[in-house]
Amino acid sequence: MTRLIALLLFVAAGTATLSACNTVSGAGQDISKGGNAITNSAEKNK
Length: 46
Known about the structure:
It contains one helix and no strands. The protein has one helix spanning 2-44. It is rod-shaped, with a radius of gyration of 20 Å. One of its GO terms (cellular component) is membrane. Residues 1-20 form the signal peptide.
């Protein structure tokens, strides 16, 4: 029973870690695209 609980906690922690990595990666991409849009807009208005 203790092994089962430990396994479930390990799987839950791994899942949370992987989803956090995807979230941070996605946020980084969104910020980068926003920065590119601002740069492009500034270049057009020179």
